[in-house]
Amino acid sequence: MNIAIDQTLDCKGLSCPMPMMKLAKAMKGMKSEEVLEMIGTDPGTKSDLPRWCNKSGNVLLDEGELEGGIFRFLIQKK
Amino acid sequence: MSDNKKEAGALGQLYKTFFAKHWPVWVGGIILGTLNILLFAIKSPWGASGGINNWGENLYSILGLFNLEDATPLISSNYGMLCLFLVIGSFIGALFSKEFALRIPPVGELIKGFIGGSLMALGATFGIGCTIGAFFSGMPALSGGAIIFTIGLFLGVIVALKYLMWEMEKFPGFSSGKSYSFFAGTGKKGNWQKWAGWIVLIITLYIAYQYSGNHQVLAWFIIIGMLMGLISQRSRFCIVKAFRDPFMTGESDGSVGVMAGIMIGLIGFTIIKYFGIAVGDVALRTREMTWIFSHFFFRAIIGGFVFGLGMTIAGGCAVGTLWRVGEGQVKLWASALGFLIISPISKLYIVPPIVEMLPASWDFKSYLPDYLGYPGAFALVTVIILIWYVFVKWNEKTGKFSAY
What we know:
Strand order of the largest sheet of chain A: 1-2-4-3
Helix content of chain A: 25-40%
Largest sheet of chain B: 2 strands, antiparallel
Number of helices of chain A: 2
Structural class of chain A: alpha+beta
Strand content of chain A: 25-35%
Number of domains of chain B: 1
Strand content of chain B: under 5%
Radius of gyration of chain B: 21 Å
CATH topology of chain A: Translation Initiation Factor IF3
Oligomer: heterodimer
């Protein structure tokens, strides 16, 4: 998937609630339709993030798992 | 041959149902509430801080410190073993779903884990209970003190959440920096985790079987503890989340999951207490007063507040800490370490002199049916849960109390 990324948020090693707090704060500072790439290692983010997108109206464009247990999400600001 | 293939397909589907995706939190809540009833039916309800305290006492016993040589050995302690196998159950759940990895966070997070765990130990020893004993089990046990402890928890969570937001704003570097991840189960290379999960499960069942001859209760505490860990890990059941998320992102799923568990527990606990159901010859009044602690109101409100601070900073209450230990989150290892190191010290040397200074009338055992009858006590707890439910759902829509 070829998507232009405007900002990357590194949450590797962090556990709940820090990834979601950092994500929510980062998204606040972005403009509409900009895309944030978030990478992290907390399995909880796999269920927290889609739920939060669903509630907040931001769009989860893509999610996947990289080598070494790293999760990657692409979120577009509404 | 084709039948065999079909059979494998069906089992594969079953395996995927449990381990491919996280379960809804309310499913976890309902099963945990049911297992809590079973624990109460065979002995006494779910608790976590007592078990971790037992770990700490055993540590000091080995080190020859604080005259704790007579501490109950871990292998004979119902709650020590319940907590241990909760960690192992979560480990099994993480392995089966290939979610296990040793996740080492930046140093600042490790410090927060240790401080959070220490605060939880102080809160649990002063408040006589944690989010499980004095809340998730305490509310269904129809305890007046549990309601007060819950108010304390809310206040502690709100203050600690404000702190976390302030820290993220002013000192973002504290939760940033070098982190490491080992033994992750990504891709086909990670299939070893599934095999390891089977091995740990079989060892657990073998240990429970070994206890089943002369220590039947302990054997069941091992099995139920293992199931509780596995279910908590798969459903991400988290009491901190239940209290915190409405004030953070506004989400209510975690809260609803906890409420579901409490309501199931409430039905089972009320029946057990009302009829005095027990294994062996136990007086009705003894059964009624199970999990009713002498902490109404002062020790409950202060203990709840301090515990709420600790669990929010650590990112997991006693149980949330334990199951995250099992999936390899090293921040929560620091939290468990802080908890087990501080708990016996607090119980022996910090809490007693403070309690001695308090007027005796400030803390007593408050059993709600003594004042309201069983229907009134049941209705009161139900109404409190309903008000909480309406609040989190309204807040989820409006975002009135959410930070983000």
